[in-house]
Specification:
Elements: E1 14-19, H1 25-33, E2 39-41, H2 42-48, H3 55-64, H4 77-84, H5 88-112, E3 120-123, E4 138-143, H6 146-157, H7 161-169, H8 174-179, E5 183-186, H9 191-214
Parallel strand pairs: 1-3, 1-4, 2-3, 4-5
Amino acid sequence: MTPTAPQSTGRPFRVALTGGIASGKTTVANLFATHGVPLIDTDLIAREVVEPGQPALAAVAKAFGNDVLDADGRLDRRRLREVIFRDAAARARLEAILHPAIRAEMERQSVAAAQAGPYQMLVIPLLAEGGRRDHVDRVLVVDTPETVQVERLMTRDAVTREQAEASLRAQAQRSTRLGIADDVLTNTGRIDDLREQVAALHARYVKLAAASRERPVVPPNGHAAQ
């Protein structure tokens, strides 16, 4: 994919971090954080927006019934996964509820952290499944062989191989994720390899972020602001 040219938009330079399930995104994100990079994790936000009392939780219960809530009125994630797992229409209904709430909170956190680091990293696991990339300057894909993902899922989530493979099939194909990448970080499972790759990418992003701040804003009339 042709690298995205940085644009001076008045907002922080943003890198979207994505990858398949069990690819090591959290580990990679935490390594970027050691360089002082603010992290905005849409997985965490997705949990926050369905906490008790949040409008999104009420909307989910209305759409799917109170069976997706536990005895304490919290979202029963396992039950909800069962409901949407093989039902594309149900999954689309859920996304229509959650995605706007997640985007709004992501933007709020981005504005709040605008001056906190040289650039921001937005962790967006489902970017390849239809997420917007017009609000980021680069896309970084964590790439891991599917066989490794399956083994990690079986260990991490205590699921069968069949369930782990089904989880991978429910996501975008590996080739699709690589197709949206400006940068690819290969996760071999060796933490030292990850550190080296993260350090090199961090240096690149610092330079790109600095260049984007120096580029003049070009208004609709085509003349750079003086």
